[in-house]
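[job 0412] stage=fold_complex status=start
inputs:
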Amino acid sequence: MKSIQFIVNGKECTVLCPPAKTLLDVLREDLGLTASKECCGKGECGSCSVLIDNEVVCSCLVLAGQAENQVITTCEGVGLSPNLDVIQESFIAEGATQCGYCTPGIIVSAKAFLDGIDHVPSVGEIKTALGGNLCRCTGYTKIIKAVQTAASQKISEPETIR
Amino acid sequence: MLVSEIDMITPSSLSECLMQLSKEGRIHRLIAGGTDAAVRMKEGKWRPEIWINIKNLNELRYIQESEDCIYIGPLTTHKDIIYSPLLQRKADVLVDAAREVGATQMQNMGTIGGNIGTASPAGDTLPALYVLGARLELTSLSTKRIIPIEEFILGPGRTVLKENEMITKILIKSQKPNEIGIFQKLGPRKAQSISIVNVAISLTLDQDLKCREGKIAFGSVAPTIIRARKCESMLSLGTINDELIRNIAKIAWKEVMPISDGRATATYRRDMASALLERGLYRLIRRWDNQ
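[job 0412] stage=fold_complex status=done
writing structure:
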């Protein structure tokens, strides 16, 4: 067991856990942040996506000891009701979720992607950016639409974005 | 050994890391991006007593140029490679290959040193490194040696790396203005797939598409990456035209030696190696013409 510190969603946290425990398990079990989901556990599906220093990674393959002192953002950190991020609002408006299991990972990936660009992305760009996130309900059309909607809203009303 | 029993050490410098690696009487293993190491730990294949975590050892994360050589730190991520203006200009085939690794998450996490150390026959950056004439600096507490990547990889997952050594530098030759490369991959889907076959091509061209030298390396068609020497010798025969490309593709069918596995049959791999090489050469010529 080791005492490990992180900054999760803007808050400093200290967790006592084995250093080889995955960051995903720490987030879910020790910190109660259950938006990030375990699905494949091998980095193939993206359901566990979180941001470390604003870069999207699979938290199921990051060991807790490796994330020490890192700045981590989960889907809860992107936005929680009633203060949802424009991306989350767009997912609701476009109905871009079915069972919802992949949604938190996709929102985190979309957040990193849209923060890095300043235009409304093409379908091809979105497919590349979200290539690591699988949706087995296959609602991709609406997901892609939601990302485009979020991008155009971010550009038209930048002052309202947190 | 249970996952919960594995300890972790995070060295703050390369020298401290080399000292940790030299310690005997315990089982330790390096972990960088973790995209392979963490999966193997979960599968029960890799359960060291101690992980030596080098994920944030930033002194090994760099891309530099000196004269006609480019030095890449082993902890450089695939994303770093994709966005490097230097590599885009002078190692286009490596940038191409890094783009084909997994998807965004894997490109952010995975490192080039990890891709080499894992020594998978399907590793996407490896054929590119073969055609760029990559050499690796292997360092231990008391030794340092530089060897070509062909001599580093012995078989699937097997390398000449000693217990106390680590990859500390990757050296490649900068491409000259008349050199151009391309990487082609066949996988079950565009993102996030393991290569069924991949190929890296690098050509040195004169006026009128006369090829002075060509290098071709195939992945996933043998226990290690292989250079297609017969195809390469055909490339230097003269001007690259449709007939030459078709003939080279036919020779490639004979030159690769794939196996059947869960991803594809040997025959399919042969056919696809041939097709990918043909397509790659056509695309490369088009890219050259558009420059």
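[job 0412] summary: The mean pLDDT of chain A is 95.
[job 0412] exit 0
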